[in-house]
Design a protein that fits this description.
six-stranded antiparallel sheet, binds zinc ion, alpha+beta, about 650 residues, seven-stranded mixed sheet, globular
Length: about 650
């Protein structure tokens, strides 16, 4: 974090959301570093962004930036920088590629010379003027939670993908004025400037960049928790039930606030929902979140649970990552990658808690919780990359791997969301076991919040282990060395035993007979009438005997093949049987003989064990909020 290291971001951050009077302040803030650099006395400055959208159908957002300072000696040249990424989405996205029509002028409109100095920096020859302005336009035609979209229906943008910052002034406050077409309204987590329409104040650029903006004829579903206003802002129609959505999201908010100690760490909270035919994705922010959801996905229970899971995940982030901050994640360097080994905590444990919260809020049953955990275990065990990459490596390389997956990713990577969630579950049960049910991972999260965020500190991997060990009351070095920094197979049963559960993988140890099925070891997909090999699992029969990702399969045993046909024929085979596959590899036709392997293929299940001690029963109950061995638990699997 070389650029922002010296900045007092965290104190400012905390102040802005704890202080209700912040909105009453004017826009002036000191710019000490700049003034000191120029040998001038401290002086106030005003940074104002105006975002206009005069022709929404062209997808062009017009930005004007005005900088106004008091008397004093100011630099003759200044640099404006467009961020290359936006926090929460760990990939270089090069937002500057959408910038056009850059211009600079003095207050009278007389042009000032300027020059690009690298891909995302503009140097303006201000000649030492105290007041000057810049305008540019940004093409906005991509609706994801980390990009910008403007069309005749609505506008949504991330300020990091739209607004440039003056070099060295990330601490400066600014005003954001939105000129939206009538009758659109504007929603953002930034506090409004009283008396000025669609005008908002950001205490510094980290807060500005952490506050996406929606402008449209959105619907609003408001509710309060502990007297604090929350609103669900919905752009787009869908088959949701507003009352059910309000009630369920409120339950999630209440359960998470209680888990984190009862204090509400924001002045207000905004859920921005975009409902579209086929969309997804969600991104966390300080006191808001943006979630893209399938507009007709609210009637199916499974799909609705997925939506609530996204809500619970993003909302939990307001603590875990937005305030409980991994070492490198704030203050941010917006010009390059910000590396951390802790995304497995920031994302994975957030995913774990999303499920825990849905359970505690009564929105899923313990059967559904355990089925989802069992399915996650199976997913990891079916990923060869689990033996190649550990949780810290997955976090560190998110920038070049997680967001840039290819056909080999399953063999070389793990997903820090999935593995992190599993580690969260195992760590939670380990702490409960070691502390004899006295403490849990909840205590770790609360301690990180109290001991790090509230004291203005970020935490390191060593801090996280230490706080976990304090909760457990014993060393967890073996756990962290083997499962977090190492690549060893996870011992699910040792953790599950703490809550009188065990994992049934359908193997010889399970209650049923082992089901070993014939196995090829490749994922296939029908694409435009062709059967294509999408990926081949390392160590599988397909991998060892020469099938490649990208191969087109024409025939199995000389019979025309599509995916259903191949699946059905392999289903009839036994481990050790051979098949022939006629393939095109690029333009060349050939035939591969492959001897099928065998794999236990039953769905994993988490089931109760007999002879539970009182302590184990208690741990189960405090963990999942239900009594052990309730009829539903052994009734089977769903969700
Ligand atoms: Zn997340």
């Amino acid at each position: 974090m070389p650029v922002g290291k010296k900045e007092k971001y965290r104190c400012k951050l905390k102040g802005s959301f704890l202080s209700a009077t912040a909105v009453l302040f004017l826009v002036f803030a000191n710019a000490p570093s700049l003034a000191a650099q120029a040998g001038a006395p401290k002086s106030a400055q005003e940074i104002t962004f105006t975002v206009a959208m005069p022709k929404p159908h062209t997808h062009m957002l017009d930005v004007e930036l005005r900088i106004k300072r008091g008397a004093g000696e100011w630099p003759k040249q200044e640099i404006l920088i467009m961020p290359v990424w936006t926090p929460g989405s760990y990939m270089i996205r090069e937002f500057a590629r959408h910038v056009q029509d850059f211009a600079a002028s003095d207050v009278s409109g007389k042009p000032l010379p300027w020059e690009k100095t690298n891909k995302n920096s503009w140097r303006v020859d201000t000649g030492g003027l105290a007041e000057w302005r810049v305008s540019y336009r940004v093409y906005a035609n991509e609706l994801t939670v980390r990009t910008n979209e403007l069309n005749t229906e609505h506008a949504f943008w991330n300020n990091a993908a739209l607004l440039m910052y003056p070099d060295g002034q990330l601490n400066a406050s600014s005003i954001l004025r939105v000129l939206a077409p009538e009758p659109w309204r504007v929603a953002t987590g930034l506090p409004p400037v009283p008396g000025q329409k669609n005008t908002f104040r950001a205490e510094n650029f980290d807060i500005l960049y952490d506050s996406p903006v929606e402008a449209s004829n959105f619907k609003t579903i408001p509710f309060e928790v502990k007297g604090v206003p929350h609103r669900i802002v919905i752009d787009g129609d869908g088959n949701y039930d507003p009352e059910r959505m309000r009630a369920d999201i409120k339950k999630i908010v209440e359960a998470e606030i209680e888990l984190m100690g009862g204090e509400v760490p924001y002045r207000d909270y905004t859920f921005i929902l975009h409902l579209r035919g086929n969309t997804g994705g969600a991104l966390e922010h300080l006191n808001s979140t943006a979630i893209n959801a399938s507009r007709f996905g609210f009637r199916s229970e499974a799909s609705y649970r997925g939506f609530l899971d996204a809500v619970a995940h993003e909302f939990f982030h307001l603590w875990n990552v937005k305030r409980i901050r991994p070492d490198a994640l704030g203050p941010f360097d917006y010009t390059k990658e910000n590396y951390t080994k802790l995304l497995w905590v920031a994302e994975g444990i957030t995913s774990y808690y999303a499920n825990i919260i849905l359970r505690r809020a009564g929105l899923i049953s313990e059967t559904e919780f355990l089925a989802s955990a069992a399915s996650a275990f199976q997913g990891l065990q079916n990923t060869p990359g689990r033996l190649v990459m550990n949780a810290e490596e997955a976090s560190f390389d998110a920038w070049i791997k997680y967001y840039r997956q290819d056909e080999n990713s399953v063999n070389s990577q793990i997903d820090y969301y999935d593995k992190g969630a599993i580690l969260g579950l195992l760590l939670d049960l380990e702490i409960r076991k070691q502390s004899k049910g006295a403490r849990s991972l909840d205590d770790v999260m609360r301690a990180l919040y109290g001991e790090f965020f509230k004291k203005g500190r970020n935490y390191t991997p060593a801090d996280f282990q230490k706080v976990s060990e304090t909760a457990a009351g014993t060393s967890l070095e073996t756990f962290f060395a083997k499962y977090v920094r190492g690549r060893e197979e996870l011992e699910y049963n040792s953790a599950l035993a703490a809550a009188v559960l065990r994992l049934d993988t359908g193997g010889p140890a399970g209650p049923g007979k082992p089901v070993e099925k014939a196995w090829l070891g490749a994922d296939l997909a029908d694409e435009n009438g062709r059967l294509i090999v999408k990926r081949v699992y390392a160590g599988s029969p397909a991998y060892e005997q020469g099938l490649n990702a990208g191969d087109q399969i024409l025939a199995l045993n000389n019979m025309r093949a599509d995916r259903a046909f191949v699946d059905a024929r392999i289903e009839e085979k036994r481990p050790g049987d051979a098949i022939s596959l006629t393939i095109f590899r690029f333009d060349d036709l050939s035939t591969l003989l492959i001897r099928l392997g065998g794999r236990l293929d039953a769905p994993y299940r988490i089931i109760p064990v007999d002879n539970a001690t009182e302590e184990q029963k208690q741990i189960y109950k405090s963990w999942l909020g239900a009594s052990l061995l309730s009829p539903r638990l052994s009734a089977g699997q769903d969700g």
